[in-house]
Structures
1.
Amino acid sequence: MIFPSPKLKKMTAVLKTLKEIYMLNFKTSLKKTALSLATGSLMLGMTMSAPATAKTFEPQQVTDMLHLVLESDRTIYTKKVVKRLANKHKVIKATESFEDDKSLPLPAQMFRFGSEAVADKTDKFSYSLLSLWPINKQNKPATELEKKGLEYINANKGKNFYGEETLGGKKYFTAVYADVAVATPCVGCHNNHKDTPKKDFKMGDVMGGVVIRIPLQ
Amino acid sequence: MSRNILFWLLWLIGTIAIGGYLTTTMFYNGDRSSLLIGKTTSGHHQIELSCNTCHGNGFTDGDTIQKACLSCHENELKVANDSHPIKKFRDPRNAARLEQLNAMKCVTCHTEHKPELVSSMGMGVTIPKDFCFKCHADIGKDRPQTHKDLNFEGCASSGCHNYHDNRALYERFLEKHAKEPEMKLTQLINNLNYEKLSEEYGGLKRGTPLSPADANAPKEHINEKLLDTWHDDAHAKNGVNCSSCHQPKEEKQAWIQKPDASVCASCHKEENKSFLAGKHGMRLVPNMLQSKADPFGLFKEKKLSPMRPELARLPMKQSAHGTELTCNSCHSVGKSNHKFNIQKAKVQACLSCHDDDHSKAYLTSPHHDLWQKELKGELPKGSGVTCATCHMPRIAVEDKYENEVLIINHNQNDNLRPNEKMIRSACSSCHGLRFSIDSLADPNLIKKNFHGRSVFKIESIDWVLKRSSKPEENK
């Protein structure tokens, strides 16, 4: 009788292990294939049978929602921070050069900083605060649609403006919302600023507009 | 073999050889100066042979170059409260403007290898003359009282505006400091109580003072002079022992006879960071490579050498040629001496290399007189004005957690160009704003190291006062 040499024994063991690994992999891959097929058909079924559950939003719904957030935050900053601390309690001022003055940023700056921070993170949407009577002339309408939109919200109180425009070869959905004087500092500051083109703003007036854009391609 | 074939063969071999040599030089190692397509600006000439620093692997797109610009300059723009940050232009409403002037890319205005574009504004990089026009063409209409019919070439060169850094030029700042006298009542440099404040703001950690008996170096490395000078200096007084620098990693580490800048940097982080950002240290930034390793092991990676005076474009003393610029060049007093002389680094170290008119005139300037009086005890500490007072001022910077830390800014370029940047960190300690702006506008006065008075009068403050007393009619 021939005894298997230790070398042969070792080889057989290696082969056995290899076979096991192969079988295991085969089994796993079979399992994987079955699982992915099942998931695939399930997803297909879901899409086909229940299209209503795959909810997509219209650009207008998105800009409306974004505007709600922007407007609420802006109003709260103006009333609860600036008006309360600067105008009511007079413990701190709100000034344009807030770093040097150790004061609060103006509400318009606060809004712009947020918009610039967003622009640094995404190009899925963008927003800005513009006016037909801007203190900073860079905030006057720069596109035809911006001008049309600002004029529309000013003439039609309570209504928003929606449109499409092509900028830099890209198509955008553009929404314009009225920015209304909600607190006395808004009116006071704008009427008295040396660079203001309009000095007769009253509470509740449309002072400018929030423009939100979503690229359509 | 016919002569024709022989010539063709020679031509082929020659082409391959020259092509191979040039390619190798460009990507790995060799004399790259022949590849420079034009003189580089004074801002970048020190690193001009480290091509990869800006151009990446050599076939990179504009984005790589933009990233390279930002890798060195992003932070200073943030600190300068950049008036035209890139993020301001990301909004698609600026598309039409960007078509005229691509404000998203540094190279739109600051071009390299085109010496003919370097303007007379004395900047370290190229700047177009009338670019403001592209977006601010209406300024004459908006500010008829002050800006009507003004030439757009003068916006930035008149001492009024700067595209990025307006910290000492913006309107409210001018208004606030308009009435300041030429000389302020108290004339002491900013952030004088540096040591106290740096602790307070979480700067250097300070240990218990050490006596000569505490020195923990092996005996063979100790001698009396070393011990005396060490014990008498800031390091021993703040608990920094021999091993802290000579065996910084662990006790059993091999003794480092000459610790390099990286050892200093382990405590003096912000100083090192600012040193690497300026012309003295920029060649030592980690990715500045003189040669790159290749896949076949023919070339090894080699960093640029430290700066030497003979590489500078400003006049330098012949006697200083060959000196390499590291921490010790200015701070070390001499061999076997562990006292780090801070007075030497204020003037003497600078003047041992710099040989231009401004530097030479310092010794006869009013600023130098003040320093001498301070040293003699005739004036209080902080009254003297040295080279370092203006060129390496004590400033507050933010650490990575946005906490304020006071440092000595070792980037001597930081407040130089345009020189209005010096107003806040240096001039304003003692001088009024109007006096400072006028003085910095006079190149001859600068040459004479401020001995005399400016012949220039910058109108910006008057315009601001005019505007605030009588608002402009703008529509």
Note: The beta strands of chain A are 126-130, 161-167, 170-180, 206-215.
2.
Amino acid sequence: MIANRRNFLMGAAALSAAVVTPETVRAMAAQEAAADWALATADLDADIAPRGMRLVHGRAPADLTGTLFRNGPGKFRRPGGSATHWFDGDGLMRAFRVNDGQVTLEARFADTPKRRWESEIDAVVTPGFGTPGDARARIGSNDDANAANTAVMVAGDEVWALWEGGAALAMSASDLSTKRFVTLRDDLKGMPFQAHPRYDPDGTIWNIGLNGDKAVVWHLNADRSLRTAQVIDLPRASYMHDFTATARHLIIVLQPWVFDHRGMPFSSQFAWRPELGTQVLLIDKADLSRRRIYELPTFSYFHLGDAWEDASGTIRFDVAAGKDVAFAVEGARVMVAQRGSVPGEHAVLNLITLHTDSRAEMVASGVTAEFPKSDPRRAGLPPRLTVHVAGERPDRPLPTGLATWDWDTGRSDAFLFGDSQIVEEAVFVPRGPDEADAWLIAPSINLAEGVTELHAFNAARVADGPVATWRADVALPAGFHGAWAG
Amino acid sequence: MIRIATVAAALLLSAAPALAQSADNKVVLTFETGARTGMVMVALYDSASAFDGGSARPVAATAVSASGSRVVATFENLPAGDYAMKAFHDVNGDGEMNTNPFGMPVEPYAFSNNAVGNMGPARWSAAHFAVSGETAQTISIR
């Protein structure tokens, strides 16, 4: 191309229109009214005592009994300073208890050192994923900054509130009171235990924790006691929120969002380097030194689906893949600002195949998707269905519906509530032998009513809408991840 | 993600050098511990440069058994002035402040004034206190 004055000027004009700086976005947002989705990041000032939820639609499934535990940020703002990023609010553990058609809801904040100190001085001062924090922070160890706000793991009569940079926080499953940080072995106190443990078909549990280009690989027994913990080297110091596994392998996806320099907030340490591509590290569970690296085109991600391996050794797994980290860096800040448009393109469900000859490929389903989940009984086996939240649009930052994607037929079975609902992650609750013979249980925030709802969908007929909907008399802010205890 | 391994280095105690003594001044530190085994290792510093600089020597150091009903470290005959204290509880009695594989302390540690650092050891500015006569503090080291 021959540069000339005219196309240079046009290029400059296009560039200035396209490059909207975060400062510009914030200045524009400050002029605007609060978004209609603002309840998603509203503050809850206190715990929510157990209360009944009212059946407002359909019929309660007779065979559905259990508890949906969910975690997510519940308080961002204090008079002396606030969390400025969606990932940094205080952890709020919720329990939707379903029994004989009746549902109760309760929620309790994780009683962390961070929350105690910030309650005392009435200011959010602790640095986090996207919140810079300030000199008033008291951080003697990782867990002094632990927000315990990301996910939950059921552990006997406890639920463990999971974060990324520190230990799990044990809470009572019966009343959600905080017990202690979980130390799986004395010499491993404070080691990071990430938010997405993988449940092996043999009942054991795998997880990872990151520190630069090193990771601890946790292997827990079914009773949640420690089997092994080993530190491994990673080919790059990449930020990751999730990993996945087949029956024989761990799969670590290394997006090109890599450590660049020290600093706070945590995410400011990483640089998006799309020219590096995305790598996949395959590790043999039986010998963590046996590994293989695959190269894929650049994508970003937070969440992976389950992985499986066929008889030939070919491995497949799904991913909610994004184009860049605009949402993680800036979008999640606008979420807490509660006004303005949220930057970042929504993730698309993709299938990744790792061939035995070291080739890797990635195929897009075409559907917008986040929080991919499959039948927990089929971990390690080829799933037909992936359930995911749906209905995000460029003008709608949060999901408005739920869908399954059928990998065999390439068909989406979706139900969209419309803009009056923010739909949260669904869990898969098996009821019969077939994969589709399951309930999908997901809460939502009903923006029209200003309350939290819980929905049960038939996994075989999502498009029919919820089979049953229960309504609370209170709105909880949007959560991140849940676990079902049957 | 947050490194405070320097605490461990700072707390590797060395013998106290001889110093000018004053019979009038002493520091009594009572430790509230979470474990009854091992020793609480205590180091006293008399300057910001010694306290904040990782390798400097303390003006006094002692080790107190954690098995007693009260765990008390006493420093006597001190010149009047400002001091700050670092301590760790060597729960397993191996003489070291043990760390996890990512370099974070796994044994309890504390500073005078119960000061807490900000992604590192507490600084002199938060931990120092004046000594004139007898000065007592109760330190939580759990």
Note: Residues 1-19 of chain A have pLDDT under 50 and may be disordered.
